[in-house]
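Render Peptidyl-prolyl cis-trans isomerase in 3D.
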Amino acid sequence: MVGSPSADQTGLPEGWEVRRSNTKNLPYYFHPATKDSRWEPPAGTDPEKLKEYMAKYHSSKGVAPANLGPQDGKIRCAHLLVKHRDSRRPASWREPRITRSKDEATALIEEYRSVIKKYEANPNDPEGKSLSELATTESDCSSARKGGDLGFFGRGDMQKEFEEAAFELNKGEVSDIVYTASGVHLIQRLE
């Protein structure tokens, strides 16, 4: 694509564009005229258009994770996070202010879990998607840019409920619904 994509394509307010960080290899939002840069989308963003644009041009399929090799006592997981208004930070790259209830967040996660189960039963099912595919467009965590991949972590690195669920999983397995102060999660153990 030559030049910057238009606001019609990205869903960002006029003047804003998506760039990729050289140090973190992650997309961020930049306004060249004001030199304002941020990890979260600016106010006035159309979340549906941004979601489509990010899935098409900033999907992580085939991108190697930052922490490449396994480390003693550490596991690697991906997750899909749905925040709610009582989450410790009720905002995300998708929504500047999250107002859904915990019950609504749980209902969304349950829908995502059924889509993942369809994919696990038959990867060719058009109604199924992997956790990584869903996380790229639906997760309220910035790890969405990496298909939900959190890299390697050890005990004591994550919130207690998240850690306990993650360490109980076998490689490739997706957790049941996990509640933490951050919101509602599905976790998949990658390594």
